[in-house]
Amino acid sequence: MNKATIRDVDVQHKRVLVRVDFNVPLDAQGKVADDTRIRAAMPTIKYLLEHGAAVIVMSHLGRPDGKRIEKYSLKPVFDHLQHYLLISQLMSYVSEMAPDCIGPETERMAQETGFGELLLLENLRFHKEEEQNDPDFARQLASLGDIYVNDAFGTAHRAHASTEGIAHILPGYAGFLMEKELDYLGSALEQPRRPLVAIIGGAKISDKIKVLDRLLHLADALLIGGAMANTFLKAQGAEVGDSLVENDKLDEARRVMADAERLGKRLLLPVDVSIADAFAADAHSQTVPATQVPAGWRILDIGPQTVEAFRAALADAQTIVFNGTLGVAEFPAFAKGTNAIIDDLAEATARGATTIIGGGDSAAAVEAAGAADKMSHVSTGGGASLEFLEGRTLPGVAALKDKA
């Protein structure tokens, strides 16, 4: 990573404006249901507090579309953040929450935040100007600090006021989470330990065609599952019943397979599948060859023979990238293939391989399996990691200062 980090700047007695990704799920009682992203931001927050900065934290939550909607308030996040300050032995540092992210009251609170104290701003997306990357809105945010830190990899692919616009006003640095994300994803693509094996799942080829094209040139083997595999199977002439298929992408699937053959790369598709008579958690199911799905049935998971074929391909892998589930993992009966591969990834990590989980559904599946701490890195950004794997420039990263 060639971006300057908070280690490269003296933050003592500075007001540091930190963009984090606290866009976390809330439960029915309005409490934080999954605090992965809060925990991921704590090393940066802890470092800044301990080095004498006034830490002003900002984030979005949900999609309030520029309106103040109380169910999207960051108040539950603030309560949870205080819990982490406590268990991180940082409770001696005063923390407060502002009523808004801009305005006279927020400006006053920011100015009164002492060095070694923390202020959390209210939801940035209560203002439509945030997603519009409005210059005046960016200037109002920038007026709250002396230094800008972006630790929100999950939003780095968006050119918003708090992720891109502000970095043209204040000197911008990467936080520790941003650094970690870029280091792991960058090394996997630029200097991987080989063999490099990519496992790509999810629903649609159209969502990941650029990722597939790039990985065909970078990876030694490509394992394809999820509903997107159905399109590849049909493109080969297989009977896939009522499975989800992108019929307008059949030629694209054929091209990808032809490119893999031309480049001498292994491209593995399911050889057997778990099928259901309805898209439901309690549907009747059976396992059949991937080419023989009866009419009225649909593919919802990879089968045991496919798991073994994928496992063999992973046996000597030194770098593994996993993006997208291999079945309908939210249904326990059809999460077996995904969970089996997650077990293999944990074993690969234990033997010294680098395992990188590309955020989104795959990260959620790893968390649900209780295996997040058994992976080398679980990305906090689904869309951002996908665009990074495509080789696209992330605006929130590009705007940060380069290392001297």
Compute the number of strand runs. 17
The CATH superfamily title of the largest domain: Phosphoglycerate kinase, N-terminal domain
Name the CATH class of the largest domain. Alpha Beta
> What is the name of the CATH architecture of the largest domain?
3-Layer(aba) Sandwich
- Largest sheet properties: 6 strands, parallel
Give the CA-based shape. Answer: elongated
Number of helices: 14
Please describe the topology of this protein.
Blueprint: E1 15-19, H1 36-50, E2 54-58, H2 75-87, E3 95-97, H3 104-112, E4 118-120, H4 128-131, H5 135-142, E5 147-150, E6 172-174, H6 176-190, E7 196-200, H7 205-218, E8 221-224, H8 228-235, E9 239-240, H9 250-263, E10 266-268, E11 272-276, E12 285-289, E13 292-293, E14 298-302, H10 304-314, E15 319-323, H11 336-350, E16 354-357, H12 360-368, E17 377-378, H13 382-390, H14 395-398
Describe the protein's architecture and organization.
The chain has 404 residues and is α/β, with parallel strands linked by helices. It folds into two domains: 6-178, Rossmann fold (3-Layer(aba) Sandwich); 185-389, Phosphoglycerate kinase, N-terminal domain (Rossmann fold, 3-Layer(aba) Sandwich), CATH 3.40.50.1260. Helices cover 37% and strands 16% of the residues. The chain is built from 14 helices and 17 strands. The protein has helices at 36-50, 75-87, 104-112, 128-131, 135-142, 176-190, 205-218, 228-235, 250-263, 304-314, 336-350, 360-368, 382-390, 395-398, and strands at 15-19, 54-58, 95-97, 118-120, 147-150, 172-174, 196-200, 221-224, 239-240, 266-268, 272-276, 285-289, 292-293, 298-302, 319-323, 354-357, 377-378. The strands form four sheets. A six-stranded parallel β-sheet has the order 3-4-2-1-5-6. A six-stranded parallel β-sheet has the order 10-8-7-15-16-17, with helices on both faces. Strands 12-11-14 form a three-stranded antiparallel β-sheet. Helix 12 (360-368) links the parallel strand 16 and strand 17. Helix 7 runs parallel beside helix 9. It is elongated. The model has no long low-confidence stretch (mean pLDDT 93).
